Amino acid sequence: MSVERARNLRKSMTKAETLLWSRLRNRGLEGFRFRRQHPIGNYVVDFVCEGERLVVELDGGQHATRNLANEARTHWLQQQGYRVIRFWNNDVLQNLEGVLAMLQAALPRGPSPARFTRRPPPKGRAMRSG
Questions:
Q1: Which of the residues 1, 63, 92, 112 could staple to 16 if both were Cys, CB 3.0 to 4.6 A apart?
Q2: 35 domain-assigned
Q3: In a domain, 128, yes or no
Q4: What is the pLDDT, as a whole number, of residue 5?
């Protein structure tokens, strides 16, 4: 059920989510790989860098009334070994560079070379050069 819900959420991202994703996708933040609207357990998180166990959540006005649910969600994610960073949608829309700087500070000083290593080709297939 979470996978189907995640797919639907990817199709209807908020303006703030779309803007942040435009900068995170394709390893756009210091070479780290992020996923959007990704299921973890019973939850679908806005963004996650699995390699660094970092979850990024964007909160709109509706989240102000859901403090207990957000706290329970954050607590559960932390128990699973994730660090959770939350931003308000307005922060992303009005200060995207500041949000990106905070995310960079939360990540190690650069991706390990292993993140850029190509996977070996399937057996019986040679890698193309170039």
A1: 92
A2: yes
A3: no
A4: 67
Q: What is the DSSP letter of 62?
A: G
Q: What does each C-alpha distance from 98 to 26, 80, 105, 127 come to in angstroms? A: 20, 28, 11, 40
What lies within 8 Å, CB to CB, of 57 at 6+ separation is 45, 46, 47, 70, 84, 85, 86, 87
pLDDT at position 97 is 96
Tokens representing residue 73 in the block: 């969600």
State the residue range of the domain holding 21: 2-116
In this predicted model, what pLDDT tens digit does every residue of 80-108 receive, in sequence order? 999 999 999 999 999 999 999 999 999 98
- CATH code: domain of residue 51: 3.40.960.10
